[in-house]
Amino acid sequence: PRRDVELELAPIVKTTGRVLWDDGSPVAACTLVAYTQDSTLLPEVALESGDPVRFGYVVGESRADGRFELAPLAEGTTYDVWFVPDLEQPLDRLLFQGVAAGAEGVEVVLSPASLTGAFVEGRVTSALGRDVSGARVQVHWREKESTQPWGSDVELFWKCDLPRRTLAGDELWQELAVDDGRYRVDRLVAGRQIVLFVTAPGHGTELVGPFEASFAGTTRDVLLRSPRRLEVEIIDAEGLPASRAKVALSYVGTVQLTTWYGERYADAAGKLVYEDVAPGPYELGGRDAFYGSSVRVEVKAGTPVTRAVLKLE
């Protein structure tokens, strides 16, 4: 049988504006890539694919006088826009957030600082005051007002003397190995809260942040201490060892690290050891075939070994 279906479609509009260098001259042939928070692919990946439109991105280009039009855009929708002056180096771009569909006269000013992005730099030293080489720096970020947990909204950027970038899912990874213990992470978006995870062989993992990177640069020195252990004893309601109980360790501070530590099983004696645990507050949860419970645990920076008892009831 025939059935009539009414669909309400948002009107299609365009956004106009101009792209200028910081000296006032126009930026010609600047590629613009607009997308919403619902986009499922990173802008960098969409650009590198050669066909970002196929992934739902709206693409435009500035004219000789720097003026541009972005269309078609859905009325009432807010977009984030990458401004990319040189597609040969697609990471050299400026993110312009909160561009409303239908807006007119949007003016974007590009400068070397804005194209390099905000950055954070500093030294990585040991408890003895010596520089640490071969450190790995991992950057996590999220929007200030984001309701998503840390770890589900992650983008990683790296820089060192010999950059090596590997794409793994939606994350960019790289080892940062500098002889003098100094690091610099750039191409970050100013105004976003970021957290650093720093590791090095023979040292404990450290968490630094959250803080905001700026175009002028933010300095965060990192002190690596000895690795910290978390020893857990899991018992049942009768006080007996809960052998083979499933246990999950989650960071409950400024970031979500559930996927970092993951789920593990207690041994036959109901015990479990986590090596190299970053300092901070955690939730330790466990369950067996009948019961489940959780407990808060605080791992302190100056404590080599923290012990906790988890009773399943």
The H/E string reads EEHEEEEEHEEEEEEEEEEEHEEEEE
Q: What's the helix count?
A: 3
Distance between the termini: 57 Å
How many E-type strands? Answer: 23
Approximate helicity band? under 10%
Give the overall shape. flat
The main sheet orders its strands as 3-2-5-6
Strand content: 35-45%
How is the biggest beta sheet arranged?
4 strands, antiparallel
Quaternary structure type: single chain
Mean pLDDT: 76
What ranges have pLDDT less than 50 throughout 5 or more consecutive residues? 143-175
Structural class: mainly beta
Radius of gyration of CA atoms, rounded to a whole number = 24 Å
Q: Care to describe what's here?
A:
This protein is mainly beta. Helix content is 5%, strand content 44%. A hairpin with a 4-residue loop joins strand 21 and strand 22 (292-299). It is flat, with a radius of gyration of 24 Å. Residues 143-175 have low confidence and may be disordered.
Summed up:
The chain has 313 residues and is mostly beta strands. The chain has three helices and 23 strands.
Any key phrases for this structure?
flat; mainly beta; 313 residues; 23 strands
How are the elements arranged and paired?
Blueprint: E1 12-21, E2 31-35, H1 43-48, E3 58-61, E4 67-74, E5 78-84, E6 94-100, E7 106-110, H2 112-116, E8 118-126, E9 136-142, E10 166-168, E11 171-173, E12 182-188, E13 193-199, E14 206-212, E15 218-219, E16 222-224, E17 229-235, E18 246-251, H3 258-261, E19 263-265, E20 271-274, E21 280-287, E22 292-299, E23 305-311
Parallel strand pairs: 1-7, 8-15, 8-16, 17-23
Antiparallel strand pairs: 1-4, 2-3, 2-5, 5-6, 8-12, 9-13, 10-11, 13-14, 17-20, 18-19, 18-21, 21-22
